[in-house]
Write a structure and sequence with these properties.
Elements lengths: L4 H37 L16
Length: 57
């Protein structure tokens, strides 16, 4: 089975177009994800840890 040159050209073109679309949309997706996670964790605080008393003898 031989792979023809037009088939390779089509596969290469599709992959390049897909990468260009992903490059344009990735920053917007990451910014919105960061904003959503910031709102999710806003106001959440870590619990206060109780340390045991160390007795000096």
């Amino acid at each position: 089975m031989s792979v023809t040159q037009p088939l390779l050209l089509q596969l290469g073109t599709i992959s390049i177009i897909t990468l260009l679309i992903a490059e344009k949309s990735a920053p917007a997706i990451l910014v919105s994800l960061g904003a959503a996670s910031e709102e999710l964790f806003q106001g959440k605080q870590l619990p206060i840890l109780k340390f045991p008393e160390i007795e000096k003898t």
